[in-house]
Amino acid sequence: xxxxxxxxxxxxxxxxxxxxxxxxxxxxxxxxxxxxxxxxxxxxxxxxxxxxxxxxxxxxxxxxxxxxxxxxxxxxxxxxxxxxxxxxxxxxxxxxxxxxxxxxxxxxxxxxxxxxxxxxxxxxxxxxxxxxxxxxxxxxxxxxxx
Length: 146
Hints:
This protein is mostly helical and 146 residues long. The protein folds into 2 domains: 1-72, Rossmann fold (3-Layer(aba) Sandwich); 74-146, Rossmann fold. The chain has helices at residues 3-7, 23-42, 55-68, 82-91, 100-108, 128-140; strands spanning 77-79, 120-122.
């Protein structure tokens, strides 16, 4: 599930999710994403939430909803160098421009993750297929469990 799509459903009072005043909106959206993910998992589907799940803000709503429904939870951070992330955002077609300072702060929220560092997959210099293979292996062997 692409978590970013859930933000696009908001039409009234939408606040760009990287702005400081968007925190309450972001929390609500991630709770909705968690409920949708739990619904798919309850139906028996392997469910992967693809999104910016900042540990200190959004991991708990997702984990809580899935744990309440008795589902297994894994968490992975695909980490690339800041310069690569900035370049990828610039290359996206049809996306509104993102403030580089905001993106830098967002990138920094995934550094120094403490015990969650074990859930990081370094994707620098890897193809999407290579990153997916590593993710699949770590999911299978349980190294991404949270």
